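Session log. Operator J.P. requested a structure for one protein chain; no other inputs attached. Running the standard single-chain path with token output.
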Amino acid sequence: MDELKWELLTEVQGRAEAEVIKVYLLGNGIEDVELFQESVGQHIYPTTLDILGNVQIFVPKVQAAEARQLLEEYNNAADES
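Structure written below.
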């Protein structure tokens, strides 16, 4: 069996925040970023209620450490604003 190629980076509340983090990571050299959200919560009636609004952000395992560092920088910048 092949080793998993993806690693869970973080989970955020809401698709909008997940998309911003995705663009930030892609813009800073992370090759690919995948978002996973329960299907009922993302298309017809977007919601941020309870677990339906949770979005998991996955990155390639080989870039997970770099992505964690970028996420920390992103969060620190958000805290300073």
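Operator note: The domain at 6-80 is CATH 3.30.70.1530 (Alpha-Beta Plaits).
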